[in-house]
Amino acid sequence: AQSVTQLDSHVSVSEGTPVLLRCNYSSSYSPSLFWYVQHPNKGLQLLLKYTSAATLVKGINGFEAEFKKSETSFHLTKPSAHMSDAAEYFCVVSYGYQKVTFGTGTKLQVIP
Amino acid sequence: NAGVTQTPKFRVLKTGQSMTLLCAQDMNHEYMYWYRQDPGMGLRLIHYSVGEGTTAKGEVPDGYNVSRLKKQNFLLGLESAAPSQTSVYFCASSASGVSYGAFFGQGTRLTVV
User: Fold this and answer.
1) Are A108 and A89 in contact, with CB atoms under 8 Å apart?
2) How far apart are CA A38 and CA A44, in angstroms?
């Protein structure tokens, strides 16, 4: 069975410090992986996606994620947090036609 | 702005009432989806459509019906609302299928009392 685990439900960082949001997946297939961001009272926006090309994926707003097959991980990082990054982030694994599984989300708090 | 628009944004229903949520997209996408979001559970797929006139069941279809009479619209119906259907509902659309990424609407917050 395919699954995705976001290891932290809440992460708090100071503005200007690095962000690390952790995601582990399990999949019988070579997966496609995504990170989405949801700002308060907004829909989900695609940040970045991995589809078996380069293992380091760059997304919007300075975020990037690295696919590590040996660790079954797809952690999201950003070198320097900005106040506007405060939101909820979802890791998503795709494992076939029309089939995706969403993680339970990580709420990122940015402290001024 | 192009995108996915959901109507209404908020609604309170009494148990047993019916309602329809409307999703409209102007990107000419073939694929459309309805999800529900509940705390600590991520998003779960209710129903989806791979083109005008088609619908299919997702992970949690019970208590919901859908229709895709026009390519740009995807309707989600609750015939007899139950408190367990209190949730935030998201519509999404995609050109190539959700497995390649999707655009999401802003959500509809539904409370059933």
Assistant:
1) yes
2) 5
Check CB contact under 8 Å for B104 and A45.
yes
Which of these, A92, A104, A96, A87, lies nearest to A28 by C-alpha position? A96
Q: Do B104 and A44 touch (CB under 8 A)?
A: yes
Q: Which of A11-15, B36-40, B99-103 has the lowest mean pLDDT?
A: B99-103
**Contact state of A99 with B99 under an 8 Å Cβ cutoff:** yes
Residues B36-69 have pLDDT tens digits of 999 888 899 999 999 999 999 999 999 999 999 9
What does the pLDDT look like over B1-39, one tens digit per residue? Answer: 568 999 999 999 999 999 999 999 999 999 999 999 998
Other CB atoms within 10 A of residue B109 CB: 16
Q: Which of chain A's residues have a Cβ under 8 Å away from the Cβ of B40? A: 9, 104
Other CB atoms within 10 Å distance of the CB of residue A17? 12
